[in-house]
Each structure stands twice: as structure tokens, then as C-alpha cells.
Amino acid sequence: MTPLPPSFYARPALVVARELLGTLLVVRDAQGVRRVGRIVETEAYIGEHDLACHAAKGLTARTEVMFGPAGRAYVYFIYGMHCCFNVVTDEPGVGAAVLIRAVEPVEGLEAEVRTDGPGRLCKALGLTLTHNRMELETDALHLLPGEAVAESRVERGPRIGVDYAGEWAQKPFRLWVGDSQHVSRRPAPRARKRP
DNA sequence: ATCGAGATTACA
DNA sequence: GTAATCTCGATC
């Protein structure tokens, strides 16, 4: 199977976030153990003007990779204990990326480990800061095409944890597979009609 | 050199 | 509801 090429990632983050649903994230560790998850939840961070995007801080040591060529990993450490994994999108000069928020276990994962949530999936797959800036076409780290996810299964809503971003917090840039059991959060359930 | 905040998670 | 815990980036 051929890894997704740089041209796949060199499109607007919202497009990539949609197309990533259903694809396979493949990580091989130093011992040669392969771990694979199917992506079921993503969030698009579309550029410097997007106040929820780390690139809104401008070009810094941390955000530099987001402004570089598409098809590389952007991994950051947060809250003193978790890593979050993103893929860089768009043309060089555009600080955009897609956060992977949840995968379904496919290979190499113990039955009890959870892969829903950006921190949990990094822990489960062994993704760390050492993967930051890596190209996504290596044996150690790449994505593979999966079964296409029909539009009828795609749901959208506001991104998680970005309330500080004003109007940008409301935009429906979070995408997930509606019938997946491995999505990190669901919209507040609608109140049932009174019996 | 120091300080505040954070694209989260686990547990009371 | 809140503690845990480290990196980055801004400020002094």
C-alpha cells in the first residue's frame, strides 16, 4: 500500500480534515512494532487568521513546522502530560494543520487501551515530540488510504477547548464519523420528548 | 531568569 | 469540579 503523498496534504485544512476520515495512521516503533488506527475524528486549524490556531501566534520555533511544506507531523506537548498529533496542510507559508482527535484500533493495540481523544491516541500509538516535524511518508510514520467515508456519515461541530478564540470557536471545523464508537465527544444529547 | 497559559485527562 | 505537570513564548 502506498502512503498518502504530499499532494494529499497540500490542500486547505478543511478539505484535508474531511478526506482524512477513514484513513489509516501507521506508526512503527524502535522495536519494529507496528500500530495502526483508523481516523474517525479531526479538527481543522486553517491559518494565521484563525485565532484558535497555534499559528495565530505568528512564526515561532513551535509553529514553524505549520508554515512549512504539507505532509509533515506537528506534535506539541500540552498540560504537562499529553502530546497532540497534527498533520501540516496547505501551501508553504500558510500556517495550517489538522489535529487528529480519535482513531479506531486496527492493529498492534491492546484491547483495553483507548484511542479516543488527542492525548490518548498519541499515548496508544506511541507518538511523542520525537515525531514532531517528521515527514509522513516514512516507514516509521505514514498514513494509508482507507475505505472512503460517505458524506452521510460525516458530522460537524465546533472545535473542542478553544473557547478563547472568540467567533472562531464557534465555526464547525471539527469533523467526525457519526456512527463510530471511538469518537472522543458527542454533541449534547437532545432532550427527549416528555412521555 | 521568571511566569502564565494551554487544541487534555483522570479522578473526587 | 479540579489537580496534575511540562513546554513554549512573552516579559522583566
From TrEMBL:
Protein name (Swiss-Prot/TrEMBL): Putative 3-methyladenine DNA glycosylase
Organism: Myxococcus landrumensis
A Pfam family annotated for this UniProt entry: Pur_DNA_glyco
Matches recorded under InterPro entries: Formyl_transferase-like_C_sf, MPG, MPG_sf
HAMAP family (UniProt xref): 3MGH
Superkingdom, taxonomy of origin: Bacteria
Family: Belongs to the DNA glycosylase MPG family.
First-level EC class: hydrolase
Annotated keywords: DNA damage, DNA repair, Hydrolase
Enzyme Commission numbers on file: 3.2.2.-
Membrane spanning residue stretches: none
PANTHER family: DNA-3-METHYLADENINE GLYCOSYLASE (PTHR10429)
